[in-house]
Amino acid sequence: MSDLGRELSTAVVAFHEAVGAHLGVTAVDQRALALIGRHGPMTAGDLAKRINLTPGAVTGVVDRLERAGLARRHPDPADRRRVLVTAVGGVLGDLFSGLNAAMGELTARYTPEQQQLIADWVTRTVEVLHEQTARLTTRHQPRRNRPPRANDEV
Amino acid sequence: MSDLGRELSTAVVAFHEAVGAHLGVTAVDQRALALIGRHGPMTAGDLAKRINLTPGAVTGVVDRLERAGLARRHPDPADRRRVLVTAVGGVLGDLFSGLNAAMGELTARYTPEQQQLIADWVTRTVEVLHEQTARLTTRHQPRRNRPPRANDEV
DNA sequence: CCTTTTAGTTCAGTGTACTGAAATATCAGG
DNA sequence: CCTGATATTTCAGTACACTGAACTAAAAGG
User: Fold this and answer.
1) CA of B106 to C1' of C17 (A)
2) Cβ contact, residue pair B103, A125, below 8 Å
3) Is residue A59's beta carbon less than 7 angstroms from any atom in nucleic acid strand C?
4) What DSSP designation does B88 have?
5) Beta-sheet pairing, B83-87 with A83-87
6) A154 CB near a chain B CB, below 8 Å?
7) Cβ atoms A21, B31 nearer than 8 A
8) Strand, coil or helix: B91
9) Cβ within 8 Å of residue B54, ≥6 positions away
10) Between chains, do B122 and A4 touch, taking CB under 8 Å as contact?
11) Among A1, A67, A117, whose Cβ lies nearest the Cβ of B117?
């Protein structure tokens, strides 16, 4: 069972990497996208704080996301200095459509009760992962062979 | 439910990134490690073919894995030109111990039948992910804003 | 208004992982 | 042995994402 978890983990990571390579965006870019996907439109500055990057770096992140058609810059009508970054569903949806369809087929094979059970397990697993990720990022400080990486919450 | 999948996905990726940052290894390094973890000890050349990297790059990969204590170089007794790269369980085990413990607790909450159901779902999900990853990496060629990345099977 | 603060982009410099080629060491065959 | 093939490392060059600082633009507050 713990082997299965490892397999799931690597499969998920491999898929994410494939998506990133396909679209020409980095892992950090994808984290930023997930962030605005979850929290809604966000200013570049907020994004910088969230993913622990300098404003200059965020410009690059958003550039790549825009070029890939995954996000768009939107001037804030209330404050014209600010730039709101919004996620664009279309392209990513296209890419994930195959996955979503296949997963839909898969879930359809289970009864509602079973689906409920699986959803429950997934929810708790996500919680565990968040806890363990936090444990890694806060308790120990990273080993610095390489430059400091953006590895905060997502 | 598809939202849940997305959340699980990002949580998994975040954890992996945290581990990588903590140990000073890249995502590619981790893929290489997963590879030798699954297929057993492997020569540097095989590793190069598998992850689609030049031999020179593989030297760097193995260097980092060794430095992190995740792998070890082992001369092939049969052919002293070759270098067998073997995974070392200890360090990674320590890192994942928290996760494994937490996941163990989590699974213990379910009945054996329920565990079986979950395992079944996970297995099928892994299959789906592999298919979809293959679809991305083979059918379409990557968009090349950036240099070609190592994104093959894992 | 005029100054100060804030938001974002631009730009030069840096670190790192990659490629491709040269170098080194070992095997295999006449 | 000696030659040619094979496995890995070393090394120079390159690409890229990041930092930190300068710059532009807009808000805020006397």
Assistant:
1) 38
2) yes
3) yes
4) -
5) unpaired
6) yes
7) no
8) helix
9) B48
10) yes
11) A117
Q: Tens digits of per-residue pLDDT, A42-73?
A: 999 999 999 999 999 999 999 999 999 999 99
Chain B residues whose CB is inside 8 A of the A146 CB are: 24, 26
Cα–Cα distance measured from residue A114 to residue A108, given in angstroms and rounded to the nearest whole number: 10
**pLDDT tens, residue by residue, B66-111:** 999 999 999 999 999 999 999 997 666 677 778 888 999 999 999 9
- In the numeric block, the tokens 């996301």 are attached to A65
Cα distances from A111 to residues A97, B53, B122, in angstroms, run: 23, 44, 16
- The rounded distance, in Å, linking the Cα atoms of A7 and B37 is 11
B148 CB neighbours strand C below 7 A = yes
Domains annotated for chain B, with CATH where assigned, are: 2-88 (1.10.10.10)
B44-51 helix and B55-67 helix, angle to the nearest 10 degrees? 110
Higher per-residue pLDDT: A58 or A89: A58
Q: Is the CB of A75 under 7 A from strand C?
A: no
Using an 8 Å CB-CB cutoff, list chain B residues near A119. Answer: 1, 4
Bridge partners for A109 per DSSP: none
How many CA atoms lie within 13 Å of B79's alpha carbon, on the beta-carbon side? 6
Mean pLDDT for all residues in chain A: 86
Which residues in chain A are contacts of B154 at CB distance < 8 A?
10-11, 13-14
